[in-house]
């Protein structure tokens, strides 16, 4: 059985000079506007190639687009205080039900994030908390993954219209 195709194969063809140019462009922007970026994110950009490579891959090797995406993403992370989300911010029921959880790796070595869609309900009261929980789990997976990716597995067993939430899928 052959391995599935992974976007991470593209890391092999990223020009090291392009990586450096995109990183320097980001650092110039963050140094000029330090209040718009989380200092921990900026330090991560300085020390971890993957934090820049992911944007080069996403932009299909377009350096200008990669830099724009990177700046937008890290400003968003700062505004949404992603680095400050903690496990204790969420009710125990989120953990006990297995609503979303990490579980193993796929054939490419990406960590699997498991989402039980039959538990999900679209409710205005919980929307922000659920979105932040999803962010928290993605952040946890990504922080210790060395750029090997994340696979989202949605278990749709027993779902119905009550479980449908297009806003969550877009998030």
Produce the secondary structure layout:
Blueprint: H1 16-32, H2 39-47, H3 50-58, H4 63-79, H5 92-96, E1 100-105, E2 111-116, H6 124-143, E3 150-155, H7 166-170
Parallel strand pairs: 2-3
Antiparallel strand pairs: 1-2
What key phrases describe this protein's structure?
48% helix; mainly alpha; 171 residues; 11% strand; 7 helices; 3 strands; three-stranded mixed β-sheet
Describe what this molecule looks like in 3D.
The protein starts with 15 loop residues before the first helix and ends with a helix. Strands 1-2-3 form a 3-stranded mixed beta sheet, covered by helices on one side. It contains 7 helices and 3 strands; from the N terminus they run H-H-H-H-H-E-E-H-E-H. It is globular and about 50 Å long. The mean pLDDT is 84. The chain has helices at residues 16-32, 39-47, 50-58, 63-79, 92-96, 124-143, 166-170; strands at 100-105, 111-116, 150-155. Helix 1 (16-32) packs across helix 4 and helix 3 (50-58) crosses helix 4 (63-79). It is mainly alpha-helical.
The topology string of helices and strands comes to HHHHHEEHEH
- The global form is globular
Distance between the termini: 34 Å
**Unreliable segments of 5+ consecutive residues:** none
What percent of the residues sit in helical stretches (DSSP H or I)? 40-55%
Number of strands: 3
Looking at how many chains there are and whether they match, the oligomeric state comes to: single chain
Query: Strand order, biggest sheet?
Result: 1-2-3
Sheet with the most strands? 3 strands, mixed
Q: Please, how many helices?
A: 7
């Amino acid at each position: 059985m052959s391995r599935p195709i992974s976007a991470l194969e593209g890391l092999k063809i990223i020009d090291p000079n392009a990586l450096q140019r995109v990183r320097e462009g980001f650092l110039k922007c963050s140094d000029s506007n330090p209040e718009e970026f989380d200092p921990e994110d900026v330090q991560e950009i300085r020390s971890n190639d993957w934090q820049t490579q992911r944007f080069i891959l996403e932009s299909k090797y377009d350096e200008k687009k990669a830099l724009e995406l990177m700046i937008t993403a890290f400003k968003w992370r700062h505004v949404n205080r992603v680095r400050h989300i903690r496990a204790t911010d969420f009710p125990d029921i989120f953990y006990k039900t297995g609503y979303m959880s990490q579980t193993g790796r796929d054939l490419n070595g990406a960590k699997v994030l498991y989402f039980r869609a039959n538990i999900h309900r679209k409710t205005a009261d919980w929307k922000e908390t659920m979105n932040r929980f999803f962010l928290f789990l993605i952040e946890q997976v990504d922080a210790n993954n060395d750029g090997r990716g994340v696979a989202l597995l949605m278990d749709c067993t027993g779902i119905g219209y009550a479980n449908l939430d297009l806003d969550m899928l877009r998030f």
